[in-house]
Design a protein that fits this description.
Arc Repressor Mutant, subunit A; Rossmann fold; globular; 3 domains; single chain; six-stranded parallel beta sheet; alpha/beta; about 375 residues; 12 strands
Length: about 375
């Protein structure tokens, strides 16, 4: 059994999903994967190579100043999000498609009729953060808009929130903010609270990573783009396998990209046309729990209003009935699962809150003109 190293920074967030993509391929290729977190060890990488004698290595890069070149150790290496100096030397690499991610953020923000736009970078200058900011600014300029940028290094959250609060108040509301990742987006939300700005009325926020624990527990809950990190792991493993085998497909300068998988819309970009907090809470409850099997009656009961009044106010705020909103959320989840292609179709009704398999198939065909299986075959 061949051993490969997966070298990361701190094992958090996206790394878990990337690793799952690598492990998926490793099971197919007959690899043993050894993960090394650089932030948790002081041992030189050469020592790990001597110890494990790996056939190759996948290395996730961090800062723009990252100058580690494990290729000098004599084994094939695939870099994930490498810094420019590594790319200049020519290497095998997989990088996030910053252009596609920024374009998705802009598609979410532009319909909100923002008066100004801004980008908030990560606390350190990394390849992916700088790339997303440059792509967002470029897309805005092509559309005739300007973009303010906040990319000064930061570490202490309250300090950066205070600074961001002053910065945001100088921009014309509604500000459409694209943040480098969800943690940066969380700082923007905190800054809005300090500055007395409402989100999304004054500041609409889009983050990246779709870290559910963070996004769901920030006020307001955060809209976020989910990159296809699992595909990044798969692509890196495929490149490495070709390099280990000595194939022509993985020699010299090969650069692959992984794009965004989906956008999870939450409160930070959801403009609900209602001043009634009960209606706003109802919309958020449906977004969060529609796939657990809740019914329109459950939502109505929670508002404390009459059925006729709550349905009227809900439709005025969203353009949909309560049941229609529940179905939209369920369909969105069903489409996401079908695109993924790994979950059996028979499990979709249970995962999306539909009452039975036969009912799900009936409403799905009425909606799309296809069976779920036909839709998956066409979309995957």
């Amino acid at each position: 059994m061949e051993t490969v190293l997966f070298i990361t920074d701190l094992h958090t967030g996206a790394h878990v999903i990337e690793i799952s993509g690598v492990f998926e391929r490793a099971a197919r290729f007959g690899w043993r994967v050894i993960e090394i977190e650089r932030d948790r060890t002081t041992r030189p990488l050469a020592e790990f190579v001597r110890t494990w004698r790996p056939a190759g290595c996948i290395m996730e890069c961090g800062k723009l100043t990252d100058s580690i070149d494990i290729g000098e150790l004599g084994i094939p290496v695939v870099y994930i999000d490498p810094p420019p100096q590594t790319l200049e030397r020519g290497c095998l690499s997989v990088a996030n498609d910053a252009d596609a991610i920024a374009a998705m953020a802009l598609r979410e923000l532009v319909p909100l009729k923002c008066s100004s736009f801004a980008y908030v970078g990560w606390c350190e200058r990394t390849t992916w953060s700088v790339g997303r900011g440059e792509a967002f600014r470029r897309h805005l300029e092509e559309s005739g808009f300007e973009c303010s940028v906040y990319d000064a290094p930061w570490h202490e959250t309250f300090a950066v929130q205070k600074e961001l609060a002053g910065w945001l108040k100088k921009l014309k509301p509604r500000v459409g903010v694209f943040a480098a990742n969800d943690y940066a987006a969380e700082q923007v939300a905190g800054a809005c609270e300090i500055a007395g700005l409402e989100s999304p009325a004054d500041v609409a926020i889009v983050g990246v990573d779709n870290d559910a624990l963070l996004c769901e527990n920030t006020f307001p809950t955060l809209t976020s783009i989910e990159p296809d990190f699992k595909e990044a792991g798969r692509l890196a493993a495929d490149l490495l396998r070709e390099a280990i085998a000595g194939g022509d497909g993985a020699k010299g300068d090969v650069r692959l990209a992984f794009g965004p998988r989906s956008l999870a819309r939450r409160q930070s970009t959801r403009l609900v046309n209602s001043l009634d907090r009960r209606i706003v809470r109802a919309v958020e409850r449906i977004r969060r729990d529609a796939c657990t099997g809740i019914k329109a009656a459950d939502i109505i009961d929670e508002t404390g209003l009459s059925r006729r009044l709550v349905e009227k106010r809900f439709f005025e705020a969203t353009g949909r009935t309560i049941l229609g909103e529940i179905r939209e959320v369920r369909f969105a989840k069903a489409f996401e699962i079908l695109r993924d292609g790994t979950v059996p179709i028979g499990r979709i009704p249970e995962l999306c809150g539909w009452e039975s398999d036969s009912y799900f198939k009936r409403v799905f065909k009425a909606r799309t003109g296809m069976t779920p299986r036909e839709w998956r075959r066409k979309s995957v």
